[in-house]
Write a structure and sequence with these properties.
The protein is an alpha/beta fold. The protein contains 15 helices and 24 strands. Helix 10 (about 295-305) packs antiparallel against helix 12 (about 360-380) and helix 11 (about 310-320) crosses helix 13 (about 400-410). The termini are far apart. The mean pLDDT is about 95.
Amino acid sequence: MTLVAGVDSSTQSCKVVIRDVSTGAVVRTGRASHPEGTEVHPSFWWDALLAAIADAGGLDDVAAISVAGQQHGMVVLDAAGEVIRPALLWNDTRSAPAAGALIEELGAAELARRTGTVPVASITATKLRWLRDAEPASVERVAAVALPHDWLTWRLRGFGPANPQLAELTTDRSDASGTGYFDGTRDEYDLDLLETALGRRDVVLPRVLGPGESAGTTAALPGVPAGLVVGPGAGDNAGAALGLGARDGDVVVSIGTSGTVFAVTETPSRDETGTVAGFSDASGLFLPLVATLNAARILDAVARLLDLDHTALGELALSASPGSGGLVLQPYFEGERTPNLPDATATLFGLTLASTTRANLARAAVEGMLCALADGLDAVQSQGIEAQRLLLVGGAAQNPAVATIAGQVFDVPVVVPDPGEYVAAGAAVQAAWALTGERPEWPVSLAAEPASEPQPIIRSQYRARAVPVSR
């Protein structure tokens, strides 16, 4: 039995999944936590990776490994391979003014044309502009700029301060497409945009590997033997798409703390409104993506209010009729990214003596969450993308009420895959691909396939309460 390892180095933790190449079966797993915060020294990721590998029983019997990771984080290295300052993560918003400055200088349409994305605070280019403005002494030391998965892949191959070969840094097109200085259509860096952000262009950027291309082999490390094939790695959403086996025509809706809606498509997106980020995927296609700030926490809030757990909340929601008796929850508890309403708050509409019931409130929470994600799907489809199947993932997707009501909100057939570590699974796909030269076809089991019974009243009520958006 030939085994490969996939790594998900996420914001919160590092997960390692070891799978059988021939069947895709999970053989064993490991996990280690990351520190909290929006600014983290990459050494913590390295320590967590080694700990997660040890928790998974080591890699002595493994033939290949690949690392998927949180997108956009800024890792800056000096000529000696030392990390200059803690990495700014995707969720560090101090670079929001820098995003505005880049848009003002170059224009949203021009940025979308050149990179597929209008920058927001999460994008790497905005963090480099912040570094230029806030820490000019650090900028003078920068010899290379990398992303989290790039740096971990480099370290697995034995590079670092003890062996600072910056030219050996590698990445893949999915993660590079989230930097704000990479054109995923041409698969090339835009060095003029890098210079606009950082104020310099004479720095090393990771070499962009193609799907299934090997970055090299591992060095001898604790729990890691030398000579394992190292896959190209990926951004987390692209890794999840690979792990789910998503193909052209598939849309993934992920319900976590925040929500994401992304499609796998042959068509690149260039949305100058900034609603849809025109990323690349890890298979050679494209990954237009919409993010929402509010998702599963909507259910958390209403469950607390009703003094219920999530199972009971779902059961109560299903006892109410579609449309919740006219009750509409616009769920912008933390402001919102899509639509762009950073100062918005959640609002409950349609309260009457008849509609104000516990069941209607429970259902309105589920409907509101899904309608917000459906707005994201609309934005993705506005880019000319035809959705044929919707894969609903995340912990909340396993709630029968969420799955059932999704079949009533979305006008695309919905399937709910079994719960799993799909980002790490996608990295394992990459490891197998780099090892064998072929993308594996591993089955994905389904937990539910809810009936597709769209109920127009749900979204029509929600749209009637839409808040005007000013940019």
